[in-house]
UniProtKB/TrEMBL annotation:
<dbReference type="InterPro" id="IPR036273">
    <property type="entry name" value="CRAL/TRIO_N_dom_sf"/>
</dbReference>
<feature type="domain" description="CRAL-TRIO">
    <location>
        <begin position="80"/>
        <end position="237"/>
    </location>
</feature>
<dbReference type="InterPro" id="IPR001251">
    <property type="entry name" value="CRAL-TRIO_dom"/>
</dbReference>
<dbReference type="GO" id="GO:1902936">
    <property type="term" value="F:phosphatidylinositol bisphosphate binding"/>
</dbReference>
<protein>
    <recommendedName>
        <fullName>CRAL-TRIO domain-containing protein</fullName>
    </recommendedName>
</protein>
<dbReference type="Pfam" id="PF00650">
    <property type="entry name" value="CRAL_TRIO"/>
</dbReference>
<dbReference type="GO" id="GO:0016020">
    <property type="term" value="C:membrane"/>
</dbReference>
<dbReference type="InterPro" id="IPR036865">
    <property type="entry name" value="CRAL-TRIO_dom_sf"/>
</dbReference>
Amino acid sequence: MGNPEIPDETEVAEMIQSLADWLSKQPHLPRIQDDKVLLRKFLVNCKYRVQKAKTKIDQYYSARTAHPEIYLNRDPTSAAIQTISELCPVFPLPRRTPRGELVFVARAEPQIEDIIPMDYLRYLTMVLDVLLLEEDKLDFLVVIDYRGYSFQHFLKFTTIAGLCTELMLEVYPGQYKGTHCVNVPPFIDSIVALLKRAVKPKLRDRVHVHTQLDTFHDVVGKDFLPSDLGGADGSIKELNDMYRKKVESYGDWLKSQENVRSNEELRPAASRDSMEMGIEGSFRRLRVD
């Protein structure tokens, strides 16, 4: 028997055509209605909800207009991106969890003076775009390795925390399954406790602080993890270097996407009124499925 939550191919084709028809009537969005592979990815990662897929597509291309400081000058071979991608590893692991989730690993090296937060966000969008091109199912969880993390790191990354969350949870398709913090210094535990009070219960319950790697392994599994985190795969540095090379291989495509974005001057009034994200961002309205 098939999965009752997954429509059959005829229904999926009709949904994709519905998205294409809708896009053809949206003068402010890029002409992507013929890219059925991309439309399918948005549909699948929005749990086959056509209206949600429309909203996500709009958010994805509107974010590029709303945040040119992130989406322009995305040259993975530039000195700035080379530096930030080395000092602040952020990449999906080659293998998924036993439940089929993608795992993002994030860490920051001690050279705090060379870390530029906006460059980090620029590189993060490159990683996410490459992932969208290569993967069909984008359910994901985040693992933050705080080894070597200082209070100065916290102060610096606080400036982009809201926008980083918006990108991960609102702009890109995929189902967020949780964040796991490992190797945490004492001050992080206190900060996370404070932050949990400020977010919705559903989001709060998906943030986990592990004082021991054993409890982390009990929750997410072990073998697919980097060796630094007790797994059987390569080190975080080795895996990060591999993904950096992958992002570099998409350099021409990334540059070609700079003008593939919304034109807010052409946005219909009805769309502007109902837009969930809006050109000003949506951090205050973050939803978690």
